[in-house]
Amino acid sequence: MKYMGIDHHKQYSHMTIVDKEGKELRSGNVRNTYHDIEAFLDGRGEEIKAVIEAGRSSYVMVDLMKEFGVDIRIAHPAQVKAIAKAKIKTDKRDSRILAHLLRMDFIRPVQRRIVFLNGSYATGPSSLGLGLG
Questions:
Q1: Average of pLDDT values for 56-73?
Q2: Domain that holds residue 100
Q3: Which residues on neighbouring strands pair with residue 72, listed in sequence order?
């Protein structure tokens, strides 16, 4: 299994992939396009668990990663204190920290908000009344 941290921005993301021992396998700035992300993953999406901090456009990246077979979680920024309290913040460091936190199972995922056409929303299976939660 490989673990990927994504420091997401509007035009590009910094992605870092580490193995189960924490060795960095790949890291770099990737434009947020289907083809650039596909090239970075190199067809290995099914082998990767990823994490991205919740943000305005993070759900777009989540949907794209799911298309590649990546098992992706969304982390609440306030819960990722290792990044928030860092004295030196860079995209590379942030994505690396996210990857390591995921590898050590320290990421508690947030519920994805589901917005309906009428403007109402739900935050998970139990609130949809489907008996799944």
A1: 91
A2: 2-128
A3: 50
The answer to whether 89 and 83 are in contact (CB under 8 A) is yes
The encoded tokens of residue 103 equal 């590898």
Q: Does 132 have pLDDT greater than 60?
A: no
The CATH number assigned to the domain holding 86 equals 3.30.420.140
Instruction: Give the chain's count of helices (H) and strands (E).
Output: 4, 7
pLDDT tens profile 90-120: 899 999 999 999 999 988 877 666 666 665 5
Question: Which two three-digit tokens encode residue 12?
Answer: 């590009």
For the stretch 19-47, pLDDT in tens is 999 999 999 999 999 999 999 998 777 78
- Residue 71: count other Cβ atoms within 10 Å of its Cβ: 15
Structure tokens at 32: 């947020």
Residue 89 lies in a domain: yes
Give 30's contacts (C-beta < 8 A, 6+ positions apart): 12, 13, 14, 15, 36, 37, 40
How many domains in the chain?
1
Residue 133 falls inside a structural domain:
no
